[in-house]
Amino acid sequence: MSDAYGFSTEIDNVIEEGRIINTHCHISTDEQFENADLNLLFDKSYLNWVSDIPRDFSKSEDICLFVKKMCTNNYFYYLDRAVERIYGISLSSGKWKDLDLKISSAYKDKSYFLDELKYTCGYRLGLLDNCRNPGFDNNHCDIFRPVLRIDSLFLKGEDDYNDVSAERFVSSSALNDFNLYMKEVEAFISGKIERREVYAIKIASAYDFAFDFPASDEDSAKKSFQGKMPDSFFHSYLFDKVATICARYDVPLQIHTGIAPTSNTRAWSLFNIIKSHPETKFVIFHGSFPWIDDPVAMLHLFKNVYVDICWMPLISTSYTIDFLKKILEVGNCDRICWGCDTRMFEESFAAILALKDVLPPAISFFVDGGRISAEEGRVIIRKILYENAERLYRL
Ligand SMILES: [Zn+2]
Q1: Which residues have C-beta under 5 Å from ligand 1, the single-atom ion?
Q2: pLDDT band at 201 (very low <50, low <70, confident <90, very high)
Q3: Cα-to-centroid distance, 81 and ligand 1 (Å)
Q4: Position 11 pLDDT exceeds 90
Q5: Do 273 and 317 reside in the same domain of the chain?
Q6: Residue 71 Cα distances to 76, 238, 350, angstroms
Q7: Per the structure, how many domains does the chain have?
């Protein structure tokens, strides 16, 4: 791809300077990387979400068929390029046994993946969403800033998806007492923020239930909590409380929107909540993909809406270029962030390669049209890669 305006080079410069603020990642703990190999990389990759991957690396025919089948898929394409850059062996070469050996030998060095996150990916910091241990920085405060994922609080119990129980955060007696529950939830979240143990609150409830947030009040929420009304009334009430707490402390509220294993998870369904909380900074994740027009309109309507394109460039290059052009036109360049949204550094690097294929063409559109200079384009790249995040999360 041509780099007429030097945008690709500018991204490389930022990586080299080690300044990227990766606003959303799920990098695993040190223990999970013990005995890391190609199978672990597959287990933790998005590739695994969209296709069965051959796991017997001696069956070259199966691997060859898989490679042929996946050649247009974004997850495959960028992971393929990433491992080739890192290990000198691509997935499409079919030499998975050799690649497996290279990966397992690299991970014998315990600090390997952390060094790669810093130097190959160029991260100054990553906002860490540890799904299984919310608010934990994996004991690496030099590179991670924890985010508090509170899905289990909406479920009033076990978050089976991530194996996290609400009882980790509130007392067991609160699970049967609405007033006590709300009191303990507020104290828990506020305390975490006040002690600066977390830098954002994250709601990924889209993985558990659809975005159905009816107008609610204390009485309906209590009945809902007790099972006498649909769960959605409690969900609405709790969401409202969390948004209020975030506004009080000026802590951003990150929300997973778009594709998820439940129906109706599009960003537009958050309209009423966002409208009633003008002081809360709502960060719409993943561009509400595939309903990418929703956040575009919301940027126009609400000055307190921010867009994080995390995950998007890995999912679809064409969607993301289109989306970036739209949000830059309709919104502005101060309310856009990026995160890798991955679990291992190899796929995180793949996310950077994917980002390098979407930012330059999207910003070039504005230079080609004579709206901005190439220099202004480079400033926008730096805003998206770290300046906006530094300001939004007060890093
Ligand atoms: Zn994520």
Answers
A1: 341
A2: very high
A3: 22
A4: yes
A5: yes
A6: 7, 44, 15
A7: 2
